[in-house]
Automatic annotation (TrEMBL):
This is DUF305 domain-containing protein. The keyword Signal applies. InterPro entries: DUF305_CopM-like, Ferritin-like. Keywords: Signal. Residues 26-50 are annotated as: Disordered. Gene3D superfamilies: 1.20.1260.10. PANTHER family: SLL0788 PROTEIN (PTHR36933:SF1). It comes from Agromyces bracchium. The keyword Protein biosynthesis does not apply. Residues 66-213 form the DUF305 domain. PROSITE patterns: PROKAR_LIPOPROTEIN. Residues 1-26 form the signal peptide.
């Protein structure tokens, strides 16, 4: 009887140890899960999904609002890149030049991301209706008069107009992000992360440009 009790105790201890091993990851990370198996169609074998495939099962898909946001933001960025492209020829101000270069690099990278996002989802890079109007109905976009005035300016006048118009332009981008959230877009992880990046990055740049503008008008 004592031997049986000892055998039962050893077996229970072993089962407990195995159970604990299966429920922990060996560190402080969340509990690991086993492989996810996708059932095959009749006559086909089951398939074990990769971690990325398994995660995608629970990920929200993109919406029409997401597509429109990306298409319009490409046009929005395109105008900003034209504005930054004028800086080196129209001012020698070091701070303006550094700011414009930072904007150029970040927005070119973002345009590449947006174009890839749209291509991966089989959608055109531009909405034909929006492209026909040049996107000037979007928040923050410069009017033809503002655009021509900036292009013709130089020196201190260009610096002031560049800051004023780029603040306007960036504020429009933040409005577009707010519109995306309001339309329940941005639920797909990739576009949600991108929209938050635009929101944070351009918000920081607006604050910096407001400081630079204040220095020039004080």
């Amino acid at each position: 009887m004592a031997a049986s009790a000892r055998s039962f105790g050893a077996a229970a201890a072993l089962l407990l140890a195995l159970g604990l091993t299966g429920c922990t990851t060996g560190d402080d990370s969340p509990e690991s899960t086993g492989p996810v198996v996708q059932l095959g169609a009749p006559g086909e074998e089951n398939r074990t999904l990769s971690p990325d495939e398994a995660a995608a099962l629970d990920s929200p898909t993109h919406s029409e609002a997401d597509v429109e946001f990306m298409q319009m933001m490409i046009l929005h960025h395109d105008q900003a890149l034209t504005m930054t492209g004028w800086v080196d020829e129209r001012t020698t101000d070091r701070d303006i030049r550094l700011l414009a270069e930072r904007m150029r690099i970040s927005q070119e990278d973002e345009m590449d991301f947006m174009a890839g996002w749209l291509r991966d989802r089989g959608t055109p890079l531009r909405d034909e209706h929006a492209a026909h109007g040049g996107g000037q109905d979007m928040p923050g976009m410069l009017t033809d008069e503002q655009f021509d005035r900036l292009e013709a300016a130089g020196g201190e006048e260009f610096e002031r107009l560049f800051l004023e118009y780029m603040i306007q332009h960036h504020s429009g981008a933040l409005e577009m992000v707010a519109d995306l959230w309001a339309s329940y877009g941005g639920q797909e992880p990739a576009i949600g992360q991108f929209a938050r990046h635009v929101e944070g990055d351009q918000g920081i740049e607006i604050t910096r440009m407001q400081e630079m503008l204040a220095e020039r008008t004080s």
